[in-house]
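Exercise 7b. Backbone tokens:
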């Protein structure tokens, strides 16, 4: 997940994921991004295998901790391992 901070001060962001029942992020979901920085945040999600599908749609959401109106959502595809 790429997080961009265009503000003149450091900001904290919370990353979350939605999708099939039981989906969860593995690792730290809060990041700090310096003023005018871009940060590439590697994220891992775990989903219980509930169907025969090879993939499912998921949505990552990044929300500013101090300014909750600053948020973005991005669709992605979760691929089940073979």
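Sequence design result:
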């Amino acid at each position: 997940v790429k997080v961009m901070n265009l503000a003149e001060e450091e900001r904290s962001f919370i990353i979350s994921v939605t999708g099939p029942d039981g989906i969860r992020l593995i690792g730290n979901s809060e990041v700090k991004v310096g003023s005018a920085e871009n940060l590439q945040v590697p994220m891992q999600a775990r989903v219980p295998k509930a169907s025969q599908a090879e993939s499912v749609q998921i949505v990552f959401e990044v929300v500013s901790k101090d300014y909750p109106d600053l948020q973005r959502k991005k669709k992605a595809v979760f691929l089940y391992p073979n």
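Instructor comment: The chain has a mean pLDDT of 90. DSSP finds no helices and eight strands in the chain.
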